[in-house]
Amino acid sequence: MLSIGSIAFLNPWLLLALAALPALWWLLRATPPAPRRISFPGVRLLLGLQDPERMPDRTPWWLLLLRLLAVAAAILAFARPVENPQREFGGDGALVLAMDGGWASAPDWEARRERALEALEQAERAGRPVVVVNLAEPLPGGEPPAARPAGDWRGALEAMAPRPWAPDRDAFADAVEGLDETLGGFETLWLTDGLSHGDIGDLGELLADAGPLTVVGPDRLALALRPPRLEGGALVATALRADPAAGPRTVTAAAIGRGPEGADRRLAVAEAEFREGAETVDLAFDLPLELRNQVERVSILGETSAGGVALADDAVRRKRVGLISGEDDAGSRPLTSSLHFLRKALQPTAEVVEGTLSEIIEARPDAIILADLGVMTDEQRTALTAWMEEGGLLVRFAGARTARAETEALRDAASGGPTGEDPLLPVRLRAGGRAVGGAMSWEAPQGIRPFADSSVFAGLPVPADIDVRRQVLAQPGPDLAERTQAALADGTPLVTAADRGDGRVVLFHVTANAEWSSLPLSGLFVQMLERLALAASVSPEATLEQLEGAIWTPVTVLDGYGRPADPGRLRGVQGARLAEVRPGPDAPPGVWRSGERTVAINLSDAESELVPAGAPPASARVESMTRAVERDYKGALLAAALLLLALDAVAALAVAGRLRLPRRAAAGLALALAAGLAAAPPGALAQSAGERAVRAPGSAADEKALAATVDTVLAYVMTGDPEVDRISEAGLRGLSRVLTSRTAVEPAEPIGVDLESDELAFYPLLYWPISADMPTPSDAAYAKLNQFTRTGGMIVFDTRDAHLASGFGTGTPEGRALRRLAAPLDLPPLEPAPADHVLTRTFYLLQSYPGRWRGGEVWLEAAADASETDGTPFRHLNDGVSPVVIGAADWASAWAVDDDGQFVVPVGRDGGRQREMAFRFGVNLVMYVLTGSYKSDQVHVPALLERLGN
Fold first, then answer.
1. Span between the terminal Cα atoms of the chain, in Å
2. Residue 859 scores a pLDDT above 60
3. What one-character-per-residue DSSP string does 147-160 give?
4. What φ, ψ does residue 648 adopt, rounded to 5°?
5. Which residues pair with 264 in a beta bridge?
6. Which of 126, 203, 274, 797 has a CA positioned 20 to 30 A from the CA of residue 586?
7. Dihedral sign (CA 741, 743, 748, 750)
8. How many CB atoms within 10 Å of residue 710?
9. Tens digits of per-residue pLDDT, 774-800?
10. DSSP string across 845-881
11. Regarding beta strands 129-134 and 94-99, do their DSSP bridges make them parallel or antiparallel, or are they unpaired?
12. Cα dist. 257→235, 265, 618, 873 in Å?
């Protein structure tokens, strides 16, 4: 194979024949010797006669050029010139398929798998042994797998999925030398994600040294998100990219949380643009506190990878904490106020609410702190107990009032009053209290004992300079040790806690100010409040500094596509492992818990940056994931050669006088045709019927816009496949005729739209048949599609494969294409169409949605809960019309008719019943998108009729 730019000659040796063209020119110009002149008087009798047949004494130069062009075109044709030739792996020796397989490979994973399967099929035909390696998977025993027949790898390759961490290229680089010795050299196809993941070695050079190397990179590098943070009351996440030279790029992200029904719900959407040369851009979500605390993750729309998802944890969830003091400290000095140190500890990271107990309970706080509140009325106790048992956290601090109230309670019990455990205290208290280190005490002030492993404060370092001078004491009991969370050096409880219903009560046996101890003056005080989930960490790094010394277990982990998944049998890990912020197989990104604390481990931290990978070796063949279409010019050149030979025959007849055209006119015609063929670009002759012609600006687009504004028009997306587009047009034509004959809607002839250049706002509905090889539209096209769905338009996706089910997007090539094409769209959560959906009764009463195929599910926007509780926003757009309908029944084939009204595609075996039901679904679909949900009340008709009958 000889390559010249993007053109390759499959039979390059035939090009040597071009060297014979000069000799051919000389031979064609050769003429016989001139005749001898002999005087013959009888020749005079021939004077005045005209011979219609003439023979020139020399071949004209333009006719020679025409013949040489014909011969050159034939030579080039048989040399098999091919534009964008596809790389084949049908040689000898072993083939190594190396896939990065990490999070950055997830956005175009289906294309990567298709490329690998194609290479595997070529190797299987050639009988080559193959080694398939996922660089994100640990190598068993540090060695790559053994070479096996190509067919044995097909199942493993089809089941392979991207991992939610970076590939370990250095581990594979260490094993390349041994692999080279085992295989005796090999050829490599490396599907790289184009990013540098802190690689130390140069894997590309090692693979190039072992044999031929083909490096396939992504069309566009993956994006990532830094962990969300709080800035000025807003939730902010920073998006990263590795190629600032790519120019401006718009990125959209969604803040996702759980609704009351437990399903994921978009709480807010933010959009920003990477400026020219910028590597980062901030996405800000301005949410009220209630919604901000519901955010579980931030996800870049259209970026289906674990790197495009940033999980949120307690670091960005501000708690609402109510503060109540037993004394009026409005005029007291700050350091003697019972609430001063609590305010200082909580205000930077929590919303503090103060007031009466009833006012605070009505504010629905996450926690209530009582600072030495001794006596409460029965009404207050009942309300506080009910709030706590419903899930509230009650934290109490002792003091003189608390000690006096307990003394009086014990006296009442001794005199026959009510006895029993106080639900607002975790333990029973002894009367009075305990003073240590005073003038009348033999004891010295007590320090704090290191926290036990079972304590919520486990792992916190205890400063040696903290002393406790006074405390309230707990009554000894069998459950006292279990309820003790912190103790003094002599073992007496300092902090006790107990569960109450769904809530919890915690008691600090000292005051909230420095009157009884120096605990409020230390940093340990703030850390203890954070452990009790009263205050959010100032930053994720502050939480990570406290990871060591505890065992953390996964609550939720992310898969390679950035979707939350169950951790399964994944074991807990030491905090030191999570503090590395280096996700891997043993510690994938996700939410981890230790006691009352949760921490989100993301792929990126606050200082992370994306770095593009280095250039591949000079000897490597470099390809992109989306390959250009291969074009073979043999047929076009042979056609040109035949046409030139035909012109040569016409010109020869004209020169010989056998045509009545003037000689100069024939010569001019031949030269004009030859010049036209020479000037025409080869691509124009080889252009396939499925390729789109370049549109003259303003003409066809204006005609479409005018037609769509005059009448109601149903439109379909042109896929570039002529057969699919023909069926789509015929299908919408048939549906339009049925609508005209049965309803008040009279659509005009359907129109095919080009997503890249046509305006979409004129159409109420876009029918999008999914073709497995349809290229992904540009960002500008997706921007138009998102605007189309947000302003009332509907997209009907039809995979036409009759396999759509709950796991759509993975079963068939069309399903995978649907997943790829729909990923960048801003779509709401979807669900299978319920039996009572308004789509079943907008015109006809339907129970199913058949097309050419029966069965399968139809997916549309998930219904919102009718009650808007907890301030959760629900989607009420487009008059209740779902912006998307997804099915697999091939509806266009069932609707398709030709110009004469004859059905194009056979459907069903029940005498046209299935086709009729397909038309009824189409009528309901159009009426649904045009009229909205005004017939939703008809859902209640069966119940009303039943009631009237009774």
1. 85
2. yes
3. PEEGGGGHHHHHH-
4. -65, -40
5. 258
6. 203
7. negative
8. 10
9. 888 888 888 899 888 888 889 999 998
10. --S---SSS-----EEEPPPPSS--TT------GGG-
11. parallel
12. 13, 5, 48, 11
Phi/psi for 561 (5° steps) reads -85, 0
CA–CA separation, 717 and 830 (whole Å): 22
* Average confidence score pLDDT of the chain: 81
Report in angstroms the alpha-carbon separations of 736 from 26, 748, 799, 901, 919. 68, 7, 21, 12, 10
User: What's the pLDDT tens digit per position in 276-315?
Assistant: 889 999 999 988 877 888 899 999 998 889 999 999 887 7
The amino acid at 182: T
For 262, residues 6+ apart whose C-beta sits below 8 A from its C-beta are none
Specify the pairing of strand 295-300 against strand 309-311.
antiparallel
Q: Give me the residues paired with residue 250 across strands.
A: 273
Name the token pair of 82: 């091919």
List all residues 6 or more positions away from 907 whose beta carbon is below 8 Å from its beta carbon.
851, 852, 893, 894, 914, 915, 918
- Residue 117, classed as helix, strand or coil, is helix
Residue 735 to residues 559, 588, 928, Cα–Cα distance (Å): 42, 51, 14
Distance between CA atoms of 849 and 840, rounded to whole angstroms? 9
Q: Residue 152: pLDDT above 70? A: yes
Q: What is the DSSP secondary structure assignment for residue 824, as one 8-state letter? A: T
Token pair recorded at residue 376: 């409460």
The rounded distance, in Å, linking the Cα atoms of 742 and 759 is 29
- Decide: helix, strand or coil at residue 432: coil
DSSP notation for 333-402: -GGG-SSHHHHHHHTTTEEEEES-HHHHHHT--SEEEEES-----HHHHHHHHHHHHTT-EEEEE--HHH
What is the residue type of 935? K
Query: Which one, of 536, 165, 498, 494, lies nearest residue 315 by Cα?
Result: 536
pLDDT(450) > 80 = yes
Q: Do residues 562 and 588 touch, judged by C-beta distance below 8 A?
A: no
Report pLDDT digits (tens) over 9-68. Answer: 666 777 777 787 777 777 666 555 556 677 777 766 767 776 665 555 566 778 788 888
- What single letter denotes the amino acid at residue 754? D
The beta-strand segments (E) located in 45-175 are 81-83, 94-99, 129-134, 148-149
Q: What pLDDT shows up at residue 630?
A: 62
551: which strand partners? 574
Residue 800: both structure tokens together: 């036409």
Rounded Cα distance, 348 and 526, in Å: 11
User: CA-CA distance, 637 to 620, in Å (whole number)?
Assistant: 32
> Any idea how long the chain is?
950
- Which secondary-structure segment (H or E) carries 230? strand 229-231
Q: Provide the β-strand partners of residue 95.
A: 130, 187
CA 877 to chain centre: 23
- Rounded to two decimals, the pTM is 0.54
**HEC sequence for 628-689:** CCCEECHHHHHHHHHHHHHHHHHHHHHHCCCCCCCHHHHHHHHHHHHHHHHHCCHHHHHCCC
467 contacts 517 by C-beta, under 8 angstroms: yes
Structure token digits, residue 350: 């929590």
Which residue has tokens 């195929």?
853
